[in-house]
Amino acid sequence: MPMNVTYEGPIDLPEVIPVFPLPGALLLPRGQMPLNIFEPRYLEMIDDALASRHRLIGMIQPDSAHPGPEDRPNLFKIGCVGRITQIAESGDGRYLMQLTGVARFRVEEELTVQTAYRQCRVTYAPFADDFIARKGEEEVDRKQLLRALSEFLQANNLKADWDGIENAPNEALVNALAMMSPYGTAEKQALLEAPDLKTRAEILVAVTEIELAKSKSDGETPLQ
């Protein structure tokens, strides 16, 4: 979904943003992430974001390798900020919403704040290329990506909209597959931190091939 606001570079985004720590959640530039918001602190966060002119939320994963306190887990340093582009009230106190990814950020400092939700001072400067749509598409090995996807779907008895897949531009295809992938926190973080689209596609293929190899190995009959 296109946004009404255009972001041309890091200077267009605020230095301080609310962050939503969510394990396994991967948001990428121009990707769409549906969210079901029900915890009071995050309902407060959404209300405050809607009241601001930015409507921005930073998605970031807790760092499971360095967990920290249960109620305030340590965070990875890299996340992705998204703009609220759809929102509906459920009628039972929840928000059903969609974030559209804008750009990745690096956490410079977590702030001490009065809000129940967490806020960080961030920089987008290392990810200036995120503001350029479809940058590096021509370097993606699309055939290799589709082959890995096809094998994964077959191995898991899954179906996909191949017409939609074949018509999708490389950036949309790579990022959508990365965001929807069933992999763990470390793999999702590696996909997020990939320096370019080509590398992200290569990581996605490599992780998929590893998972396929594991499933084949697990399904083999032990030698007698």
UniProtKB/TrEMBL annotation:
Residues 17-212 form the Lon N-terminal domain. It comes from Pseudorhodoplanes sinuspersici. Pfam families: LON_substr_bdg (PF02190). This is Peptidase S16. PANTHER family: ATP-DEPENDENT PROTEASE LA (LON) DOMAIN PROTEIN. The lineage of its organism: Bacteria, Pseudomonadati, Pseudomonadota, Alphaproteobacteria, Hyphomicrobiales. It comes from the Bacteria. Signal peptide: none annotated.
